[in-house]
Amino acid sequence: MNKITDPTLFEIARKDVEEQWAALGVHDGGPVGPVMPYTMKTRNAKGKLEEEPVALAMVSVPDKAKARGKARKLVEELKLDPSLNGEDRDFVQTAERAEILCYAIREYDPKKGDKQEFPIRFANAADLFAAMGPGAEVKLGPVWAAWDHWVTMNDPRYGELSDDELVAVIAKIAERGSPDPLADIGGHDAHACIVRMAKLASRFLIEKSSQPRPST
Prior knowledge:
4 strands; single chain; 2 domains; alpha+beta
């Protein structure tokens, strides 16, 4: 698979990530690693929902395995089908995501900046669901989306779509007659896709201009 190697594009990617991290107010979490501030709604002591500042951290592979084990145990305790293809698959997926987020969501005091330990905020999925109140399974969606984007930004492959993947995005743009697919990839990848389209268009125009014109 051919990777984008243009140094100019990588410079765009680097600056793009740095700007995003600065805009997101990323902190150095020490042993926890870089953390991204996030605001979620949780119930206070009186049971009223209010905004709570937290930080989202990366989750290690071992901790993800532990989280999935906890989710399976929860599903079994509720006497539901633990299969990912079973009738309770939606709850199984939600339980797994909730347990993973319990490792990701950290206590955060905006006034302390980097000078805090960022301890785990929720002990388990039940604790998280209780804090989020009724409809927690639905409310979990935006939190998961924010954390998932943070994970993507920490991936060393961030901003490295292959040529084949870029062509696939271009095909979607042509099919829909809209640039909306660019929004799905964003950042450096969007820049790379536009450059790729420009190169393809340029090649087509050059080939077209080199063809002999029909005689009149």
